[in-house]
């Protein structure tokens, strides 16, 4: 039976730990896995532009001995030129897996419903599981374990925040979420993480004694018209030197990128010695390689 990754909720604790274990092996000995997906082809269907997601999947697939095909919005015009169901059924006859980067989460669920091959969420408006898995793996890599550790997420309660909540709930990592009123994470994510999560409307309260501080852009793709309005609403949620001082002495700084420097995070903080922003960006590829092996092999 095929396995999809549409949300962190598709994975058990054991499956997440297996992915992390395999990721560590992949990082340690890349050549050992250089032909593990030989003859396999991955379709990348992107309705949204991407840097890290596209490059990490393409390079990752190549390093595993497989191939990838990029299908841009203009080539497919998914759901308009052709139905999602028909695309899913057709591609299933050609390729071994699909990565879909889309706006509406229901597009992803429909693709998974009709595809006969594994479907991986490359980002939807509801969740970003590959990002969250890479983030949590990076925290584990730096802090060794999650016992007694606190992650503070500051900013918009968006798809990344939702997936971090689902992941923290699975792994038992405590998480504080600070958002302006009206910008909280999805209710289902908060409910799933109720045993490990607390919510705040002030960044200062959320980051107190935190081991990790995480942020994301204030306006995501598709919200460009709200950007100026959001700058005013979110101005007290910037990750800057004064806010970082309230956290643990050696608090790690994370951002899923792309970053709008001077808005949600300052240059000084993102370039500081405690920043692991580019480590988490690198780990996107390693974690996704583990996911590809688990789902496609």
Kindly describe this structure.
The protein has 297 residues and is an alpha/beta fold. The protein has two domains: 137 residues, Aspartate/ornithine carbamoyltransferase (Rossmann fold, 3-Layer(aba) Sandwich); 148 residues, Rossmann fold (3-Layer(aba) Sandwich), CATH 3.40.50. It is built from 13 helices and nine strands. Strands 7-6-5-8-9 form a five-stranded parallel beta sheet. It has a four-stranded parallel beta sheet with strand order 2-1-3-4, with helices on both faces. Helix 8 links the parallel strand 6 and strand 7. Helix 4 packs across helix 5. The longest helix is centred in the last third of the chain and has 20 residues. The chain is globular, with a radius of gyration of 19 Å. It starts with 12 loop residues before the first helix and ends with a helix. The model has no long low-confidence stretch (mean pLDDT 96).
């Amino acid at each position: 039976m095929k396995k999809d990754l549409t949300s962190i909720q598709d994975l058990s604790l054991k499956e997440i730990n297996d992915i992390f274990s395999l990721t560590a092996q992949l990082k340690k000995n890349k050549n050992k896995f250089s032909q593990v997906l030989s003859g396999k082809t991955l379709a990348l269907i992107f309705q949204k532009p991407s840097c890290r997601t596209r490059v990490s999947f393409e390079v990752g697939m190549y390093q595993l001995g497989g191939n990838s095909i990029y299908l841009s919005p203009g080539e497919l015009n998914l759901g308009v030129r052709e139905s999602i169901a028909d695309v899913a059924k057709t591609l299933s006859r050609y390729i071994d897996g699909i990565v879909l980067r889309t706006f509406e989460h229901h597009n992803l669920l429909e693709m998974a419903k009709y595809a006969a091959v594994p479907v991986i969420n490359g980002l939807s408006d509801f969740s970003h599981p590959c990002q969250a898995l890479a983030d949590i793996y990076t925290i584990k890599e730096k802090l060794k374990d999650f016992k007694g550790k606190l992650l503070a997420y500051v900013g918009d309660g968006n798809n990344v925040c939702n997936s971090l909540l689902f992941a923290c709930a699975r792994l038992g990592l405590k998480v504080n979420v600070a958002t302006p009123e009206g910008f909280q994470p999805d209710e289902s994510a908060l409910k799933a993480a109720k045993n490990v999560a607390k919510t705040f409307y002030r960044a200062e309260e959320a980051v107190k004694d935190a081991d990790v501080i995480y942020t994301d852009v204030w306006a995501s793709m598709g919200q460009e018209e709200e950007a100026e309005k959001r700058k005013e609403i979110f101005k007290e949620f910037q990750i800057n030197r004064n806010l970082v001082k309230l956290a643990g002495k050696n608090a790690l700084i994370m951002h899923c990128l792309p970053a709008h420097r001077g808005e949600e995070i300052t240059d000084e903080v993102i370039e500081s010695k405690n920043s692991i922003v580019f480590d988490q960006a690198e780990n996107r590829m390693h974690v996704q390689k583990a996911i590809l092996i688990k789902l496609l092999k």
